[in-house]
Amino acid sequence: MVLGDPVTGKEFFDRKKEMAILFSTLEDYEKGKKRNIAIVGLRKIGKTSLMKEFIRILHASKSGILCLEVYLPENDIQGFFTSCIKGIVIELLRIMKIPIKAMTLTDALKIIEQNYPRISIGIKNLIDFTNKVKYDDAFDYLFGIFEIVREETKNCVIVFFDEFQRMQEYGSILISPIDKFRQKVMNQKDILYIISGSAVGMINKLTSSSSSPLFGHFESMQLRGFEFEDASNFVLEKKEKTISISQENIAFLFEITNGNPFYLDILVHSIGRHCKFKGYTRVSNEVLEQILTDEIFQSNGSIYQNFSSLIEQSLERRGSIKYTKIIKSIAFGSRRPSQISKNTRISLTTLPAYLKKLQELEIIQRSNATKKNARFSEYELIDSLFELWLKQVYSLKEDSLLRDLSSRMQVFKKNISHIVLDYNSQLGKGDEARIRELFSMFNNDHAFGLIIPKFEKVERKTLAPNKEIDIYCYNISGIWIAEVTRERINITEINNIKDKVDTVKEEGNKVEKVIVITLKGIEQDALDLCKKYHFIVWGIVEINKLMKRKGMFKILV
User: Fold this and answer.
1) Closest by alpha carbon to 323, among 333, 336, 310?
2) Where are the beta strands (DSSP E) in 165-294?
3) Is 3.40.50.2020 the CATH number for 431-549?
């Protein structure tokens, strides 16, 4: 197995919630209630692994179900039909208990013809359509073959389309493929479709927008990176048993990968190889710095090659270096179109087209403006590790003062060392202190409907023995109060905060805003009480968005 390839069996990790949804969908399908599923997630997040593991479990535990796996190649309609034929043939040979080995399609069809003559004829007809370049006829005919497979085998049929967003690209060859697919899905009540795609925005638009032809025909499953607890368990399970790694270093790996299992897997394997070669039994900061150098900086590193391929295949192949200039500009903090235009010398009239394409490619995303007077939306890179690579590796290649590899490596290692040390320093401060530091960095920032001013002073305030305010901010027009809790907030906690606020007011202070920061959620009745008291509630998502914007590391829960 090549590192980074889809995994199944013992190599597959977690995704219990998503797997439960798939099996619930299957149960409904078997009862006559079909719910097609769209699995949506970024590149390398584990969509294909999830589908393949689901199929593996079905094959091992249930009979009477055929799983037709179809991969949609980019801009290759012939390859699409070939993939469909392959998916059908492989499943038929499986249920016939015939090993595939080195078998030609002609030989396979001869074998299939003995038990399933209609399917064999259907496949031959499909091949004939494609050979005659009658792709629209072939597309219509294909879904008829799926029906024949169900009827002749008397099995339930699930069709898996991987990288489904490319079906829209086939519109340059086929007439309205998405609309035709919708019609087939509507008419085929006995065939379940599970699609997946890495163009998150495009897939969501195709399936979730009320104006989309697929709206109402697919339920969306969003696949994201691991949460910290799952990422920690993943690292501990994948690492060599003889090597110890601290929770702080696991947290650092989670921070820079954002819980992406593809990156975590590569880095954990690299740690194992490096420690084995050096005879180490513990993962130190120096080990982390070295494996990041090996995988991110070195051109033969798996993560380097992944990002380099992304640049070459998704951007440079489109015939313009302007895409690369834009993402570099965003990586270095120029998020508004006016700033990007100034740094890249791309006019504001043509820039929106490039930004739109980068959003379609799921490389950047629109984010909320941070300043009240921001005329345009701001943009940010979706992949935090890709952002680090652009800043710490790709930019060094173009630095005229750092042409030789050894100089660039020296700078990279120094920068990574600072990042690791800074992370450990921030982690040691505690959540409350770090959020207090965040408030001290605000400067008329626009966040979640608020304009947060530049405070004159931010501190922890003691009102009385055992009565303290976590974050007490002095502003020329009044006081801002923020309370931080790591436990799920209930009514009692909200009333305690109200009591503190009343004490501050009784001392003659004007309280402008009260922000309740809950890192582990809030009870509904407590949330209702916050609305009554006009308290603002921020959760872990909101706080971490602000932490990232200010160049700080995430709060972990």
Assistant:
1) 310
2) 191-197, 218-222
3) no
Question: Where, residue-wise, is CATH 1.10.10.10 in the chain?
Answer: 304-397
The residue ranges of the chain whose pLDDT is under 70 are 1-4, 316-319, 368-376, 398-403, 405
With H, G, I as helix, E, B as strand and everything else as coil, classify residue 103: coil
Amino acid 1: pLDDT: 44
User: At a CB cut-off of 8 Å and minimum separation 6, what does 412 contact?
Assistant: 293, 297, 392, 393, 396
Residues forming CATH 3.40.50.300 domain(s) in the chain: 9-222
| Dihedral of the alpha carbons of 267, 269, 274, 275, in degrees to the nearest 10 | 110
Angle at 484 between CA 479 and CA 485, to 5 degrees: 150
pLDDT value, residue 372: 46
Domain with CATH 3.40.1350.10 in the chain: 431-549
Cβ atoms 54, 165 nearer than 8 A:
no
For the domain made up of 304-397, give the CATH fold. Arc Repressor Mutant, subunit A (1.10.10)
The partner residues of 196 in beta bridges, in order of sequence, read 39, 162
The residue among 147, 3, 163, 141 whose CA lies nearest residue 79 is: 163
Residue 97: predicted pLDDT: 92
How far apart are alpha carbons 255 and 258 in whole angstroms?
5
Joined tokens for residue 299? 């051109």
**Looking at the whole model, is its pTM more than 0.85?**
no
Q: 3-state class of 299 per DSSP? A: coil
Among 288, 267, 245, 227, which residue's Cα sits nearest to residue 421? 288
**Fold (CATH) for 9-222:** Rossmann fold (3.40.50)
Per-residue pLDDT at 304: 92
Quote the pLDDT of residue 402: 55
Q: Give residue 374's pLDDT.
A: 46
Question: What pLDDT was estimated at residue 56?
Answer: 94
Tokens in use for 14?
Answer: 């977690």
